């Protein structure tokens, strides 16, 4: 049985590698992706260029693996090097400045223990931030799936964040849906100062998000796609965004 499982994992790894090579959004020549097998299934490790490649690799691997093989995503995203203590400080500051977390207790957990960053007297929920080698772990409780998703995206926006392990629980429990995912993406686009969210139309079905609209330049188009991929729960992005002058300009 063990030999059969090992052979199955080897074949699965070959299928994943072949599928990624066929996807024009993934650059295998620049990727430092490593796929290996363990007792439970396969592990994605190494480094890719951006959040889109990370999500693509993980989601495609899970699609091919099905329900019988576990896929562990340890992929990191290439970024500038920032000291862990500095990165944790930036993340706590970013979370604390976000209005939806104004009543959330925020703490930094480091080698010296727990360091409270924001402790409102009438706190609702809590977020603990741990940073190790650029990998950010969020734990605690937040009030909605949208807030859970937003907390992760805010981490991805900070230079030096290589990976986010989002362990935030939602209380009370909230079933997910395409409408909630679409709402979360809209919230993220609205909060990005580099994006004109009013120019973007979007919808989702089974986690596949369609983007449409007219944006002023390629950089704005790239930022919208990046923000969309950064939202946890997005399975794929169909990019129909166009660039050019506004008809009313």
TrEMBL record:
UniProt source species: Candidatus Tenderia electrophaga
Matching Pfam families: BON
Transmembrane regions listed in the UniProt entry: none
The name this protein goes by in its record: BON domain-containing protein
PANTHER family xrefs: BON DOMAIN-CONTAINING PROTEIN
Domain BON: 177-245
Cross-referenced Gene3D superfamilies: 3.30.1340.30
Coiled-coil residue windows: none
Record-linked InterPro entries: BON_dom, Lipoprotein_DolP
Organism superkingdom: Bacteria
